[in-house]
Amino acid sequence: MLKYDIKDIKLAEKGKLRIEWAEMDMPVLRMIRDRFKKEKPLKGVKLAACLHVTTETANLMITLKEGGAELALCASNPLSTQDDVASALVKYYKIPVFAIKGEDRDTYYKHIYQALEIKPHITMDDGADLVSTLHKEKRKLLSHVLGGTEETTTGVIRLRAMADDGALKYPVIAVNDAYTKHLFDNRYGTGQSTIDGILRATNRLLAGSIFVVCGYGWCGRGVAMRAKGMGARVVVTEVDPLKALEAVMDGFDVMPIIDAAKIGDIFVTVTGNINVISENVFSKMKNGAIVANTGHFNVEIDIEGLNKLSKSKRVIREFVEEYTLKDGRRIYLLAEGRLVNLSAAEGHPAAVMDMSFANQALSAEYIFKNAKKLEKKVYSVPEEIDREIARLKLESMGIKIDKLTKEQDKYLHSWQMGT
User: Fold this and answer.
1) Which part of the chain has CATH 3.40.50.720?
2) Binding residues
3) Is 240 left (phi over 0), alpha (psi -120 to 50) or beta?
4) Which residues belong to the annotated binding site for NAD(+)?
5) Mean pLDDT of the region 62-91
6) Fold of 188-343
7) Which residues are annotated as part of the binding site for substrate?
8) What confidence category does residue 419 fall into, taking pLDDT thresholds of 50, 70 and 90?
9) What pLDDT, on the 0 to 100 scale, is given for residue 415?
10) Separation between Cα atoms, residue 90 and residue 15, nearest integer Å
11) How many CB atoms lie within 10 A of CB 237?
12) CATH architecture for residues 9-181+348-396
């Protein structure tokens, strides 16, 4: 009997239609699915996935199942689950799902434990909560695991720290590091979906506002680009001098967060670090400032510090909490400080997740075929996988590119030929 824990199975029909809608914009994953269906490269593999339960993720799960894998899926964030999608995966695709939008912390971890009951050979993570739970609380299951994949920057940081400490007990492929992932998903996906989440939650006009982006990695670049495109004056805060210099050269104002706090209208954290907006920063903000996070965990915003400064709070709109400070100023926190693009909107567009999840599918296949050769460390996605995904994406778009001639190839691999 299929095990699952979802909000309402009656939502399945709506979810199925939305999964089909997303699938139309995921041609690369569709090509991989067609091959997987014929070859069954994951036959016999048990795979536990801790991912955002969205329409795009559903198409990845369907692809993996077509490849022969036995699956269990739980959410990688308490607010990112699309309940209708979870229902459709259970009812129509017979995939065990353990995820409910808005679940509390205890339920979140209970769902991770339930997904691990499959005794996975491969883990698929987004933020490394599944991997860390395995290593801390379910160590007996580690002997079954061949390897894993990790979707996001935050998770890769955690896993590299584990590897450096000698704590990582199986190889993991950092899907986030693939060019076809971070150059597109992080920049274009995060950029668009973050703005989408903020606008759905607040319905505020961005044009003319001072929009503060905390962190100028690939995700920060995307958010800054899209905010500027909407007419906002963008301010970037950074700790890395190279990224700060790049932001200046891209035409943005750069300053310390404490200075940005005094002028900003909207703040977005996207660093992967803790307390980026601290109690001290909140104390300097203008009345009416809006604060959101699009980094993986809500730790980027010091919510406990905001509570200390406040005399009251209330939910004034869906996904908007109004904190009234002791001096009367009001600060608005979006989506409880969790991923605003997935909590208040639908996450990345399917077209970019097409490449990200193509990386996931092909990396899972690679792990299963090469597990015996891999060490207990974090690997980048093999270059041949990255290039194949780019090739397939171009093919799906009807775009052709040039090839090197024999003479050109020889020149690039020779040191004898000069100017």
Assistant:
1) 188-343
2) 54, 126, 151-154, 181, 185-186, 215-222, 238, 273, 341, 348
3) beta
4) 152-154, 186, 215-222, 238, 273, 341, 348
5) 97
6) Rossmann fold (3.40.50)
7) 54, 126, 151, 181, 185
8) low
9) 85
10) 10
11) 28
12) 3-Layer(aba) Sandwich (3.40)
